[in-house]
Design a protein that fits this description.
Radius of gyration of chain A: 28 Å
Distance between the termini of chain B: 41 Å
Number of helices of chain A: 18
Number of strands of chain B: 15
Radius of gyration of chain B: 29 Å
Largest sheet of chain B: 6 strands, antiparallel
Shape of chain B: globular
Largest sheet of chain A: 5 strands, mixed
Structural class of chain B: alpha+beta
Strand order of the largest sheet of chain A: 1-4-5-8-9
Distance between the termini of chain A: 52 Å
Number of helices of chain B: 13
Shape of chain A: globular
Oligomer: heterodimer
Strand content of chain B: 15-25%
Number of domains of chain A: 3
Helix content of chain A: 40-55%
């Protein structure tokens, strides 16, 4: 969903945006860091590590596998495969712009780190390339913190990949928990698992869709998995459409046929095939209309069987040993130059925080289920694809239906923040003044209630929050009275004393 | 945010305009401050785009870099900036007064009084926002290690003569700004937000236009409306009516206006560079220069449109602050700033090298200790200067005020008995006291008096007793006016009025090995220069 467009249609556009100068500079710098086949990048990492890993060089150049594939599912699958191969290769490998999937609130989100370096010992390090300068070895702490949080999300997604490669949580699960049992084939045994298939909806379209829009797909994917031999099989996750809003118009199961194809692809793999084809669901409407090329489905995974079984086993063993390093490499321009400088940043804390936050997020399904029937954020774009024709009031009502907890920090992050702020201000909420304001106010949630309590018109004097407020109001009035009595030039104080006298 | 500040913000929400947070001005405001509004190029470190600078609100000097990625143009800008700023900064160096100071005699090790110079006044730089302060630091860092042709004849890209010196001064201003309560370099948003509470959050207060919207909304509008207009209102072209106070520019401005103008400038420059070979006649060469001048003028006009509103806003802030009377102890803090200015003047005059990239262990520890002390001092002085600030401390239980109900004369049990009167105060405040806690108050003559908490009155009701322990002179009879009388209003604080720093630190040359040992002799080398000029 294009939140920026939604905010514009609501009449509260965001001020976010990036200058083309900044974009150009960022791109130039990143290209420079990654030039010469990633060797400079690996050297930066190697220099900072100071471990006994072999140094990269002309004699020992890093590998840079091609990660291009069609569609985000294809690219995540390609990334996972490249990671698996690189882990087994025992060499430096640079994955340029890999694509990872991470489940956020029950829906997969796609993430694209700047690079991942695979060490000769099979470990993975996330690389974040930023264009803010590192001056005398120190960068803006706020920006470094943001980069660390960003990297922590990548690390979580990578851990998921590692787990799936090396006997992680994906194994042993049976068919999608959301799928009505009667419709599915019996789940395949042991390794040939199909991880939970996500419902093909999100906030925007939930109301139009039954909870399990893709029963048939799952069944067939499972079918495909059934046909593959058990040895060393790993199923890739089935991705649900990520795009929001647009999906509102999708029929419940728009892609059964295509998924059948995917399953078919898995069927067609030679009997030595070791991997079940993933059941992909459309990323968005456009993708649903055009069938994905087979390469993005069965293609990358079908390569796996080429390897002899023994090697495959050792790969799995190696893959099981793959671990995501907890220090990420932050690459920034050095001082005022465009030469790269790098520092390892420990993101353990950020990983723990992000993991906890992700676990606590309300699942999108639950949010969607709580929305009234028929809620949609569709802008009804005109033919030019830009102008929204849906009345702002109707849109506002739709947005209103989804609960939001506005705080001023939102302004820096969310396109809809100005809309939420207007709503929050209209509701007289004290949070508009800052997240911490509520702390000392007890149960008083609106500015009106606080001021009334402070004036002694409302509120229980036995309530410590109310008592403190009255005391604060009295002290403030006393100080301002002294001021106005002393005839100071401060404006607005003349009337202030009367207005502020604690009890009328 | 304290409860009393939150309450002030809520009053502002209800009234639709800012409410006072202070009754006096807590920062020094120079008679003739220099306002500096810088703009930077998005995505680049230390590539200024332009600036407005000056001491007269009607006559700002506009400096522009038509192509920020060109080193020569940047140097030209910095040279102009040095010409504008350095005469002002150095203009305070010669007017000195004599001060007595105790210094350690290197031979005897004793403290001896010496007479030293102290500049009678110091320069003051005003920038729009906290980001501006950081930018001053950054500019200072980018310039102070440059080498001029005179310093290093072999330098392939020598800096204009006064640029490294400007770098040292800006570094000094930036470093000083980190000391709480200092006023050499002030960000307008922070100073305004210190004195008034708006009906928005602290995050939003960092927008100078929005802040002024709350402080002085145009007639007929509320602060919230004025602030919203400052934040979001755009013209038909999508440009902000109130451009950001910088140093970052609005991305829409960059993309729609500045980038095409810069491209035109680059084109005109390339043509002008190619022209002289083709056309020998001076007139023809001049004709080729015309598009270049036009392009440059266009960029100047564009940047002026972004800078001028901020420039005016900073001066509007100055007016608002001038309307407040200066706090009593502000001059004392400004004197410290004058010391700071004087000593940096001396360091420059003595030919010391520029400030190092990283402080050595002792200097870093000293700076940290100095900032902590300054912070404590500022908190105490603001409360003593301003009843509204003191009200916040009283609410927090860190001070109490009330009427003296009883004074009982008592004496200590030493060989020479000393007056230790017991004073009972009736107060509505709830100070967080336990027996023996020290409390402080200001005597009418300005000195501080200490006392010890003895206990609450047995009947409750807010009366409490303290025993005076100092500030009464040397005699057996307390000095006149040093003991409050029944019926006096007194205000005691639980915090010290002139907090002192921690123990002395060794000289940098005596840094213990645990902290890296004495710093090396080598002065910092200049930044490496690269031939390709991409910054």
């Amino acid at each position: 969903m294009d939140k920026g467009a939604l905010a514009r249609a609501l009449g509260a556009p965001a001020t976010h945006g990036q200058s083309q100068f900044a974009i150009a500079r960022g791109n130039v710098f990143e290209a420079r860091v990654k030039a010469d086949g990633g060797e400079a990048l690996v050297r930066l990492l190697h220099d900072r590590l100071r471990d006994d890993s072999p140094a990269p060089g002309p004699a020992f150049p890093p590998l840079t596998p091609d990660l291009s594939a069609a569609g985000p599912e294809g690219r995540t699958a390609r990334t996972a495969l490249a990671l698996r191969e690189a882990t087994a290769a025992g060499r430096w490998t640079v994955l340029d712009h890999p694509l990872l999937a991470l489940e956020v609130a029950g829906t997969p989100a796609y993430l694209e780190p700047d690079a991942i370096v695979v060490h000769p010992d099979g470990d993975w390090t996330i690389v974040e390339i930023k264009s803010f300068p590192m001056i005398d070895g120190a960068a803006d702490p706020g920006k470094v913190g943001a980069a660390a949080r960003q990297a922590a999300v990548y690390a979580l997604a990578l851990e998921g990949v590692a787990a799936r490669m090396g006997g992680g949580p994906g194994d042993g699960e049976t068919a999608s928990p959301g799928t009505p049992g009667g419709d599915t084939h019996p789940s395949p045994p042991a390794d040939g698992t199909v991880p939970p298939t996500r419902g093909a909806y999100d906030e925007g379209d939930a109301a139009h869709l039954p909870p399990t829009p893709d029963t048939g797909r799952t069944a067939e994917a499972a079918q495909g998995a059934d046909d593959t031999p058990p040895a060393g099989t790993r199923a890739l996750p089935a991705h649900a459409p990520h795009d929001e809003g647009d999906a509102a118009h999708l029929p419940p199961t728009p892609d059964t046929g295509r998924t059948a194809e995917a399953a078919q692809g898995a069927d067609d793999t030679p009997p030595t095939g070791t991997t079940a084809a993933p059941a992909h669901t459309p990323q968005d409407e456009g993708a649903a209309a055009a069938p994905l090329p087979p390469a993005s489905d069965g293609g990358p995974v079908a390569e796996a069987p080429v390897a002899p079984p023994a090697d495959g086993a050792s790969r799995v063993g190696r893959a099981a040993g793959a671990s995501v390093r907890e220090r990420v490499l932050l690459v920034c321009p050095k001082d005022f130059s465009n030469l790269p400088d790098a520092e390892l940043v420990d993101v353990r804390k950020q990983i723990a925080t992000t993991r906890r936050q992700l676990a606590r997020l309300t699942r999108v399904e639950d949010i969607a289920a709580a929305l009234p029937e028929g809620t949609t954020f569709d802008l009804r774009l005109a033919d030019d694809g830009r102008t929204a024709t849906r009345p702002a009031a109707e849109l506002a009502a739709a947005v209103e239906a989804a609960p939001a907890a506005y705080a001023p920090d939102c302004l820096a992050a969310c396109e809809l923040a100005f809309h939420c702020r207007a709503r929050s201000r209209a509701a007289d909420a004290v949070e508009t003044l800052g997240r911490g304001v509520r702390g000392e106010l007890g149960g008083l949630a609106t500015v009106g209630a606080v001021l009334a309590a402070a004036r002694g018109e409302e509120g229980d004097p036995a309530d410590p929050a109310v008592a403190a407020l009255r005391r604060a109001a009295a002290l403030r009035a006393e100080a301002l009275e002294v001021l106005s009595a002393s005839g100071s030039r401060v404006r607005t104080t003349a009337g202030a004393a009367e207005e502020e006298s604690p009890c009328p | 945010m304290s409860l009393i500040t939150a309450l002030a913000r809520m009053e502002a929400v209800r009234e639709g305009r800012a409410r006072p947070l202070a009754t006096v001005r807590h920062r020094h405001l120079a008679e003739r401050p220099m306002v500096f509004v810088p703009l930077t190029t998005a995505g680049e470190a230390g590539a200024p785009l332009g600036a407005m600078v000056g001491t007269e609100r009607d006559a700002p000097l506009l400096l522009v870099v038509p192509q920020p990625r060109d080193r020569d143009l940047r140097f030209a800008f910095l040279a102009e900036l040095a010409d504008a700023v350095l005469p002002y900064v150095e203009g305070f160096a010669d007017d000195v007064e004599r001060e007595q100071r105790k210094e350690t005699d290197p031979e005897t090790g004793k403290k001896v009084p010496v007479e030293v110079e102290l500049c009678a006044d110091a320069p003051q730089l005003l920038v729009p926002s906290a980001a501006g302060v950081e930018y001053v630091r950054l500019l200072g860092r980018s310039m102070r290690f440059r080498r001029t042709a005179e310093q290093d004849p072999d330098s392939p890209y020598p800096a204009p003569p006064r640029v490294p010196l400007l770098g040292r001064w800006l570094t000094h201003f930036g470093e000083r700004a980190r000391l709480p309560g200092s006023s050499l370099l002030l960000p307008m948003t922070q100073v305004l937000a210190r004195h008034w509470a708006t009906g928005q959050s602290g995050v939003e207060d960092q927008h100078l236009g929005a802040l002024l919207g709350w402080l002085a909304p145009p007639p007929g509008t509320t602060g919230a409306e004025a602030a919203l207009r400052a934040e979001l209102a755009r013209d038909a072209e999508g440009l902000l009516l109130c451009p950001p106070a910088g140093p970052a520019t609005d991305p829409v401005f960059d993309n729609r206006r500045l980038a095409p103008a810069t491209a035109r400038y680059d084109r005109a420059r390339a043509e002008a560079a190619a022209a002289p070979e083709a056309a020998q006649a001076a007139q023809a060469a001049q004709a080729a220069q015309a598009p270049l001048h036009r392009a440059e003028r266009e960029i100047r006009a564009l940047l002026e449109s972004q800078l001028r509103p901020t420039w005016d806003a900073v001066w509007q802030g100055v007016d608002l602050l001038r309307a407040l009377p200066e706090g009593e102890r502000v001059a004392e803090r400004w004197k410290r700033d004058r010391w700071s200015y004087t000593s940096h003047r001396d360091r420059v005059a003595a030919g010391e090298p520029p400030q190092p990239r990283r402080d050595d262990a002792v200097t870093a520890a000293r700076k940290l200790a100095a900032r902590e002390t300054a912070h404590a001092r500022l908190e105490a002085q603001e409360a003593l200067d301003d009843p509204l600030v003191m009200a916040g401390r009283r609410l927090a239980g860190e001070a109490f005020a009330g009427e003296v109900t009883e004074v009982v004369m008592e004496y200590s049990e030493a060989k020479v008995p000393r007056p230790r009167p017991l004073v009972t105060v009736l107060t509505d405040d709830g100070p967080l006291l336990t027996e023996g806690v020290k409390v402080h108050r200001v005597l009418p003559d300005g000195r501080a008096q200490t006392a010890e908490f003895v206990g609450h009155a047995p009947d409750g009701g807010g009366a409490l007793t303290v025993r005076l322990t100092g500030g009464m002179g040397r005699g057996k009879v307390p000095d006149e006016g040093s003991v409050p009388e029944k019926g006096d209003r007194v205000c005691w604080t639980l915090f010290e009025h002139a907090p002192r720093g921690g123990p002395e630190l060794p000289d940098p040359e005596r840094t213990p090995w645990t902290h890296g040992g004495p710093p090396g002799e080598a002065a910092d080398a200049p930044d490496p220069l690269t031939a390709e000029d991409l910054l």
